[in-house]
Amino acid sequence: MDEDKYTITDNKVDILSHQQRRDRIQVLTLDPMLAADVCERISNDKRLKRCTLVCPRAANVREGLEELEQTAPETISSRLILFDVRRATLPKLRHVFNAIVGYNRRDFNKLCYSICIGDGPQNLFHDNQFVNPFVPHLAAHRVDFHPAVFFYDPFLHYEPDEILLQSIGDDFVIPDAIPKRLAPYFKSEGVTVGTIRHFFRAIDKDEETRKTRRHMLRHVYKKRLAEILPGQEEQIKNLLSRDGVHWASEKMNLYPLYFEDWVYDLMRQARQNANPKPPTATV
Predict the structure, then answer these.
(1) What is the average pLDDT value for the chain, to the nearest integer?
(2) Closest Cα to residue 97, out of 58, 68, 56?
(3) For 17, how many CA atoms within 13 A lie in the half-sphere containing its CB?
(4) Could you give the C-alpha distances from 246 to 134, 138, 181, 195, in angstroms and in order?
């Protein structure tokens, strides 16, 4: 048992709480393209200027794993932790993610919050289904990571026939090709997921341009969802909204729509939970 994670009293194991958290956001991913998108979005939001942002620096998957293992204990000082939970890399990250969840479990949704960014289940588009495969997928992540919000990123989601099989001795490569169901919307040569992310976050552009590009991305999502979910306009409307869609006990949002808003709101909530206002005296 990791003695840094637990304390034993009267033969019972108590998960530690970490009260001395700061306005610190930790991004946990092996994908430099996603890391750049998440970190640049957060660092360019004026509401989050006072937050310390911890972004991955490793150049490859092996170094990324080592970096996450070394920095895992530091998460106990963060108010917000972002997990990349895509299917392709989660098996490699499961061990370190389990440790990080263990360090912070007692404080989740109180003194700190977590956000999951990921793809969907492997059979997501089988027989034009969407809702039925997603509900157990979201439930599993809720149990494992306690996220305040799960962001489904369509640019992370590859169907089985799009995954490049690799030999055991090969270096693991995170794909950067546009998923085939989205490729018809981006026909220019040489366009990758990285260039698309850069185009839509538009941090080097004025606010009007950024607003226009947010509308463009929202239109692409809306059009594709209408093809996947014919006759379910209300669900599509909810999925494109700030609050996301709710299915049974699960809920989901679309990355990166309203992503910065969620980050800001969760940071503010964690800060308030750590410093609650004293009750007002009544006469």
Answers:
(1) 87
(2) 68
(3) 9
(4) 11, 11, 24, 31
Q: Is the pLDDT of residue 16 over 90?
A: no
Question: Read out DSSP for 224-235?
Answer: HHHHHSTT-HHH
Q: What does the block give as tokens for 219?
A: 């239109």
- Rounded CA separation 85/82 (Å): 9
| Residue whose pair of structure tokens reads 């001395």 in the numeric block | 20
List, for residues 209-264, the tens digit of each pLDDT value: 999 999 999 999 999 888 888 888 888 999 999 999 998 889 999 999 999 999 99
Could you say which DSSP state residue 30 is in? S
pLDDT tops 50 at residue 169: no
Instruction: Kindly give the residue spans of alpha helices, DSSP state H, lying in 105-185.
Output: 131-145
- The span from the CA of 156 to the CA of 154, in Å, is 5
SS3 248: coil
Asked whether the predicted pLDDT for residue 283 surpasses 70, the reply is no
Distance, CA of 256 to CA of 200 (rounded, Å):
9
Pairing status of strand 245-247 against strand 250-254: antiparallel
Kindly state the DSSP code that residue 108 receives in the 8-state scheme.
Answer: B
Q: Are 274 and 21 in contact (CB under 8 A)?
A: yes
pLDDT of residue 171: 61
The residue count for the chain: 283
pLDDT band at 198 (very low <50, low <70, confident <90, very high): very high
Largest CA distance in the chain: 74
Give the residues across from 6 on adjacent strands. Answer: 15
Q: Which two tokens stand for residue 176?
A: 């950067």
Estimate the share of the chain in helix, then strand, then coil, as percent rounded to the nearest 5.
Answer: 45, 15, 40
DSSP 66: H
| Euclidean distance between CA atoms 118 and 279, whole angstroms | 40
